[in-house]
Amino acid sequence: MEQQKNQIDQNFAKVEINPFTTQEMLIQQMEQFLNQEEIQLAIFKRSDCNIILENILQKLKKLNNLNIFKITLQNFREIDFDHLFSHTSNIRSIRELDITLFKDIQQFKPISHNAGHYLCQLNDLQILNLQMNLKRFQYSEQTFNFYEVYQKCNKLKKLDFTIKSSNYNTFIFESLLDGIRLILNLEKLNIRVYGKLCYNSLFNKLYNELKDLKNIKSLELSFIWSYGAKFQEFKNLFQQLSKISSLESIKISIALNIQEVQQDDQYDDLKKIMSEFQSLKKLNFNLCYCKNINLIKMLESIASLPNVEETTIDFYVNETSSFQNNLSNLVKALCSVQSLIALNIYFSSIIEINFEQYLNLISELKNLQKLKKLTLYSQMNRNQKTIPHLNFDDLIETAIHF
């Protein structure tokens, strides 16, 4: 085991360059790069960032074994993106590329050429992770055109995009999504948006790009600081995703505006849609700012998934109206999902919920014969409660927090 750990350490280098890093220290750190398979590079608050980057990337392109390259840049007045992407594209052995630009960057130099023009030269690229803060960044639609990457990097299996902006992000992500349909081997797509969106436009673009991909198994969508999506938009998204037969895992984090929904048949429609996910084994809902009675009815649709094995429900309670009874309905619905192996329920509340009654509801879940993992977490009470034994004899892992 110790020999294996040493081997891993020998193939991995982590280098951090800050204002106190001298030229001598920098040379010593760069000596670690020789024959490394993974390099994590972080540069903080350096006025000579572009020069350092160019020197390091010139050295890295000579490495034939570098498979994973992760670079983090923070606190700069100016970054030359052309140099960053063009020099990175010369490291042809890269299989996983992770570029993170932190929030404290003060001023960006506009990109004259799009990143995709350079990165498409990484023929062995399998994972692309891009995290950027655009609040003070000059950009256009062409900036985020990765079409050439999707067209030429035919080994790509995972895309992970996180974009933060105070402006509308719809066109940015439509640009990022454009051409994903060409990645025939794509298995995972993660999208995180911090800012304003037009949901209908984005959801339609997403579906049109994914619908013909036969290997897509995992989809994560997180919309933060966005206006609430309407229930109809949410339902339309799942109706579209239900047609992608290869999907095994879906994670949705979103604020929903479903207070206007009054007709029960709309929730019945959602249940019918959920029943069409034949391959879906993992579902994660992170929801907030919803009227509770509608929220619970919507969550009950999870019970319609025919083969789900793991589900996570994370929601916020902001009113007292009939919440306890509706929570009871949710638990009873989940008790019918006999395929469940893992169940995670998280909720926070501004109200006090009857603790004993809540545990009685949860104890009903012992009827799930395949359940091996149960996590319950609530932030509703300030004082720690004593947890009675729930008699879940077959559970391998249990975590209950109040």
UniProtKB/TrEMBL annotation:
Gene3D superfamilies reported for this sequence: Ribonuclease Inhibitor
Q: Which InterPro entries match?
A: LRR_dom_sf
Full protein name: Kinase domain protein
